[in-house]
């Protein structure tokens, strides 16, 4: 559906050349929800805007539906652009026009007749949940409602692709969730391919099937969202994923740790096995869970636990016969946990 091949984008200012995107390649399939994530200035917007050639690449090719559109101009380019809709972080609505007119404008530009526009706009506004706001002005709408108008306008001409530039960054958490839900529904019901950029992994995990991670103009990693969360390889991706899981411990807990502190990753069904209690019994140690979280990404579980392995406070019946020193038992327990989980990181020994 969308193929970006070795895209580089350079901006020339008076005294320097900024390479915003550096040899980025992507392939996005029909009907996918594809995310591009990265810090501010990573090159996400520039790359997104090459898909409909709002930004022309300095090098590389853009293919839409198998057709190379990189060199298109004028009417041919405008026709190709009709296949894409675009929504923005700050909605970009016309404030002196009603909700109806904001959406109608997109249809008028595409050459639709008044009768068709009059019939179609209410349908689209119904789809995005704004049937009761048809004659209202944008200033009378909440942020979430404004973005719904932005979405209605973007899908009015039945595009094959919806490009979303940080669509929820200006919204609170709850509204953001509702907008992502609406985008997902549009993807499912209308089969529109969605490309969404965000600086938050939490947005990506809520809606995307696959993701590309950008750092300083380069795509450093891409793949299935679940796999990227489960096994982030690039240090920048790891940082993003860690921030999403947010497993930081309060200083009070880390100041006087007695024992071995582990961060344990469980994937899928393995998260359901009683691995830690088995380790405790087998090796006669205490296992104290200090932090933990299970995330479900595309209905598959990723569990992360921070656990402290240490000496049992009292001699339990299970441990009474254990004579091996604590360090040996903990080392054996770490091995045992390592075998039964996806990854173990020793945070403190
Ligand atoms: N028109 C322009 N002229 C000069 N430099 C630009 C232009 N547009 C973008 N840049 C620069 O290119 C780099 C990438 O910008 P871009 O907006 O694509 O990144 P981004 O990841 O989308 O960032 P943000 O999340 O802050 O929008 C930045 O260093 C930016 O300053």
Automatic annotation (TrEMBL):
Domain ABC transporter: 2-241
An example Gene Ontology molecular-function term: ATP hydrolysis activity
Alphabetic keyword roster: Amino-acid transport, ATP-binding, Cell membrane, Membrane, Nucleotide-binding, Translocase, Transport
Entries under SMART domains matching the protein: AAA (SM00382), NIL (SM00930)
An annotated GO cellular component: plasma membrane
Membrane-topology annotation of the record: Peripheral membrane protein
Main location: membrane
Entries under InterPro entries matching the protein: AAA+_ATPase (IPR003593), ABC_transporter-like_ATP-bd (IPR003439), ABC_transporter-like_CS (IPR017871), ACT-like_dom_sf (IPR045865), MetN_ABC (IPR041701), MetN_ABC_transporter-like (IPR050086), NIL_domain (IPR018449), P-loop_NTPase (IPR027417)
Swiss-Prot/TrEMBL GO biological process terms: amino acid transport
Transport as UniProt keyword: yes
UniProt name for this protein: Cell division ATP-binding protein FtsE
Organism in which the protein naturally occurs: Thiobaca trueperi
């Amino acid at each position: 559906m969308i193929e970006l091949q070795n895209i580089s984008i350079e901006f020339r200012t008076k005294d320097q050349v900024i390479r915003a995107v550096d040899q980025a390649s992507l392939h996005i399939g029909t009907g996918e929800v594809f995310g591009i994530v990265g810090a501010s200035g990573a090159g996400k917007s520039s790359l997104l805007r090459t898909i409909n050639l709002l930004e022309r690449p300095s090098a590389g090719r853009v293919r839409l539906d198998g057709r190379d559109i990189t060199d298109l101009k004028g009417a041919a380019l405008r026709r190709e652009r009709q296949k894409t809709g675009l929504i923005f972080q700050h909605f970009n609505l016309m404030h002196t026009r009603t909700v109806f007119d904001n959406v109608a404008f997109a249809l008028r530009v595409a050459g639709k007749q008044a009768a068709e526009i009059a019939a179609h706009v209410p349908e689209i506004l119904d789809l995005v949940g704004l049937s009761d706001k048809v004659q209202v002005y944008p200033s009378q709408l909440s942020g979430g409602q404004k973005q719904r108008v932005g979405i209605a306008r973007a899908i009015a001409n039945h595009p094959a692709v919806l490009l979303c530039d940080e669509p929820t960054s200006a919204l609170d958490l709850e509204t953001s969730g509702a907008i992502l839900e609406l985008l997902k529904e549009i993807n499912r019901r209308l089969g529109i391919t969605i490309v969404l950029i965000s600086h938050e992994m939490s947005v990506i995990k809520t809606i995307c099937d696959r993701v590309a991670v950008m750092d300083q103009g380069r795509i450093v990693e891409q793949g299935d969202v679940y796999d990227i969360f489960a096994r982030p390889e690039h240090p920048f991706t790891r940082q993003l994923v860690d921030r999403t899981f947010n497993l930081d411990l309060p200083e009070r807990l880390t100041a006087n740790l007695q024992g071995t502190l582990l961060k344990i990753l469980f994937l899928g069904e393995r998260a359901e096995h009683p691995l830690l209690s088995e380790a405790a019994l087998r090796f006669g140690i205490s296992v104290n869970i200090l932090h933990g979280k299970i995330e479900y990404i595309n209905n598959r579980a990723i569990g992360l636990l921070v656990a402290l392995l240490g000496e049992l406070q009292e001699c339990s019946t299970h441990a009474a016969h254990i004579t091996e020193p604590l360090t040996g038992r903990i080392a054996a327990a770490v091995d045992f946990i390592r075998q039964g989980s996806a990854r173990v990181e020793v945070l403190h020994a």
